[in-house]
Design a protein that fits this description.
The chain is built from 10 helices and 10 strands. It is α/β, with parallel strands linked by helices.
């Protein structure tokens, strides 16, 4: 615990516990972005997926989230399993059935689906804990057409789902009016995934802030290395985006571990999780805002039970 001298200079004052950078929060986390892979024998991977999955299982995540004091989780369908969501759904069922020591643990899922999936199937997925659909709109990735996305956004809204929008943040201004016309909330993972230009001084970032102001968009503080031009955790340009978002609207941000870091160079380096937690103290120095982002906002966005 740190010490400081008061203005009279005659007495040492202990800093409040909540102001200590290394103090453990008095609240539990909500991890709004984690991914799980299963054995290829049971859950086939995409043809282009050669990732090793030994340490990315449901059991490993259960250990991870207990160690990190996470009691609410949103699993996101990894690209490695395409639109076959069986592994994610089985993980939700397993973690719900075996919550460990924390009996209050809750878990939900964001899946990737075909645009023509029947309403009966969407309803059954809702009953299994699904709360959103992943819209892959990045160039060069296998996903939806914009016409398909338009129709699907309206259909999933009937079930109270969010749209998890995978789009280069530098392109948001080009589709701002279109996505603003969709019903319900949009969630931008990984800080908006600004790729071509990593700066707040661009039209895409201005569009993002407008969508936030219209109560249309949420942003996940997750996987800063995806946005970093150098694959870094602590990148000055990325820090500027994070701090601008925190200053703009902390009530519209959520936090995610992106465990087990499938997109990080080095293939799933889980040793970075402690560093990312420490960086949250730097990016969001205000304790009340950190609690909003890492704990409370998830209850609103994903309708967790308080």
């Amino acid at each position: 615990m740190g010490l400081s001298v008061n203005f009279l200079g005659d007495k040492l004052l202990e800093l409040p516990e909540e102001d200590s950078v290394h103090s453990k929060p008095l609240w539990s986390y909500a991890d709004c972005h984690a991914q799980i892979l299963g054995s290829p024998d049971t859950y086939p991977l995409n043809q282009n997926s050669d990732v090793k999955i030994d340490n990315y299982s449901t059991e490993e995540y259960a250990k991870f989230r207990e160690d990190k004091n996470i009691n609410r989780t949103v699993l996101v369908q990894p690209e490695h399993h395409g639109t076959n969501n069986t592994c994610l759904l089985d993980a939700i069922s397993s973690l719900n059935t075996n919550p460990g020591e924390d009996k209050t643990f809750q878990i939900k899922g964001i899946i990737k689906i075909e645009s023509n999936l029947e309403d009966e199937k969407l309803e059954s997925l809702s009953n299994l804990g699904v709360v959103g659909a992943k819209f892959e709109m990045r160039r060069g990735f296998s996903g939806l057409s914009w016409d398909e996305a338009d129709r699907l956004a309206w259909r999933i809204n009937d079930f109270g789902w969010t749209v998890e929008l995978y789009l280069d943040g530098s392109d948001i201004h080009e589709v701002e009016n279109k996505i603003n016309s969709w019903p319900g909330w949009l969630v931008f993972p990984h800080l908006g995934q600004f790729q071509r230009t990593v700066t707040t001084q661009q039209r895409g970032f201005t569009s993002l802030t407008r969508l936030i102001d219209r109560d249309k968009a949420w942003v996940k503080i997750s996987a800063p290395y995806i946005v970093s031009p150098h694959d870094n955790l602590d990148d000055q340009e990325v820090t500027e985006i994070i701090t601008a978002l925190v200053k703009w609207a902390p009530e519209r941000l959520v936090w995610g571990t992106n465990w087990p870091h499938l997109e990080k160079e080095g293939d799933g380096d889980t040793a970075i999780d402690e560093e990312l937690l420490e960086l949250m103290n730097k990016w969001v120095p205000n304790e009340a805002n950190r609690k909003l982002i890492m704990c409370e906002n998830a209850n609103i966005l994903y309708n967790f039970t308080v």
